[in-house]
Design a protein that fits this description.
The chain is an alpha+beta fold and 161 residues long. The chain has one domain. Helices cover 47% and strands 13% of the residues. A 4-stranded antiparallel sheet has the order 1-2-3-4, with helices on one face. It is elongated, with a radius of gyration of 29 Å. The termini are far apart.
Length: 161
């Protein structure tokens, strides 16, 4: 009787889990998918970084325009007809007011490439601005100082696809 139960339990045992072949097939499929999707993921990450920098540039423009409306701060603003790095902003009170509105002490961009995937020139991966405080005119650039790299008031062709 005991022997019969033992034989019955052996024959009723079922294999549980996956076989080695099934596991290898799953790993191979995952490797193929990873290889195919990785370039797209890298592209989307670069695009998100550039989009973040464009949004930051618009916030910089808003902060500068807000500070220009305050006469005591406006008097300390040094006007620039050509693009000037935001981190090297002249006029300590003006710079402190702008950076205080943004809640930072330094502005660094996240993107190292433009919308076409080309690297920015060496040292150009930063924000630039022009300012005419009397006309309440400000322009913001990122990655270069030409209209192609303009963020505000319009976005240049090198920063948007």
């Amino acid at each position: 009787m005991i022997l019969l139960l033992y034989v019955r339990s052996i024959t009723e045992m079922k294999n549980k889990g996956f076989s080695m072949v099934e596991l290898i097939i799953v790993i191979a499929i995952m490797a193929i998918l990873t290889g195919a999707l990785a370039p797209m993921l890298v592209h989307y990450i670069a695009k998100a970084r550039l989009s973040t920098d464009v949004d930051t540039g618009k916030e910089i423009a808003k902060a500068i325009m807000t500070c220009v409306t305050d006469d005591s701060v406006k008097d300390n603003a040094v006007q620039h007809a050509s693009a000037h790095p935001v981190n090297d902003m002249d006029g300590n009170d003006f710079k402190d007011a702008v950076f205080g509105m943004l809640g930072v002490t330094q502005l660094d961009g996240k993107s190292k490439k433009d919308a076409d995937g080309n690297n920015f020139d060496s040292g150009k991966d930063q924000f630039y601005y022009t300012l005419d405080a009397d006309k309440n005119k400000v322009e913001i650039f990122y990655g270069g100082t030409t209209a192609d790299y303009q963020i505000y008031p319009t976005t240049g062709s090198k920063l948007v696809k």
